[in-house]
Automatic annotation (TrEMBL):
Pfam families, alphabetized: Pkinase
Gene Ontology biological process terms from the UniProt entry: cell surface receptor signaling pathway
Protein name (record): Protein kinase domain-containing protein
Keyword annotations: ATP-binding, Nucleotide-binding
Gene3D superfamilies in alphabetical order: Phosphorylase Kinase, domain 1, Transferase(Phosphotransferase) domain 1
Example of a GO cellular component annotation carried by this entry: plasma membrane
All residue ranges annotated as the Protein kinase domain in the record: 60-222
InterPro entries: Kinase-like_dom_sf, Prot_kinase_dom, WAK-like
PANTHER family: INACTIVE SERINE_THREONINE-PROTEIN KINASE ZRK12-RELATED, WALL-ASSOCIATED RECEPTOR KINASE-LIKE 21
This protein's record includes keyword Nucleotide-binding: yes
Domain of life: Eukaryota
Length: 222
């Protein structure tokens, strides 16, 4: 009797996409921090669906946090068996996986600092890439018009502290490049958190600059 060979299961399209995205994420982690990032949990698409009640627009959608423009995002509250409160950022547009993988990689590095969101994990299987943050201390988008001058100074100090951390805490300094009010969240204690690192670049050790292909800059808002 001849040997029976078990056929290997052909990976699904979503699995192939997840593998390609995972390879890019690993490349960014190696470049940014020699692969020594904080632990990242990889959620399945089903886990994200369950956590957000199928991205419910009625009970889970956080419309006040949504981002618009070329790299639009939708935000959802959620929970699972290990995390009673999570904040899920879903990128609406495809085709920019490389930038979003950079967002995940840098987020994992700064996750332990008080002026950055605490990263829980990400989902690489979904059609639209998803990033998951801890939301035990509820977060809201900054509305600077509602803040007193004293509070504005505290927020500016928090963000300056975040920049100093990016510039000095790692072997390769990081340049943020896209400061805007939409990229600052406030937790329920009033602490400012910097988010969105897709345009963040690292400067190689011993160098003072790095060439980039995509122009990005600071957005000033009165």
């Amino acid at each position: 009797m001849g040997w029976l060979r078990k056929k290997k299961k052909k990976p699904t399209e979503s699995e192939i996409v997840a593998i390609e995205r995972g390879a890019k994420l690993l490349e960014d982690l190696i470049e940014c921090c020699d692969g020594k990032s904080n632990p990242i949990k990889f959620f399945s698409a089903d886990e994200i669906i369950n956590a957000t009640d199928s991205f419910s627009v009625y009970s889970n959608h956080m419309s006040g946090l949504d981002g618009y423009g070329f790299h639009g995002t939708e935000w959802y509250s959620g929970k699972n068996e290990n995390h009673p409160k999570i904040l899920v950022k879903k990128y609406r547009l495809n085709g920019k996986e490389n930038m979003i993988c950079r967002d995940i990689a840098v987020s994992s590095m700064v996750s332990g600092h008080k002026n950055f969101m605490k990263l829980v994990g990400c989902c690489l299987q979904s059609e639209n890439l998803v990033i998951v943050y801890d939301d035990v201390k509820k977060h809201n988008k900054l509305d600077i018009s509602k803040e007193t001058w004293k509070r504005r100074m505290k927020i500016a100090e928090d963000i300056a502290t975040a920049f100093a951390y990016l510039h000095t805490a790692f072997p390769r300094p990081f340049v943020y490049r896209t400061l805007a009010l939409s990229n600052i969240l406030l937790d329920e204690d009033g602490a400012a958190k910097l988010i969105d690192f897709k345009y963040c670049i690292s400067i190689p050790q011993g160098e003072t600059f790095v060439k980039v292909d995509i122009v990005a800059g600071t957005t000033f808002i009165n």
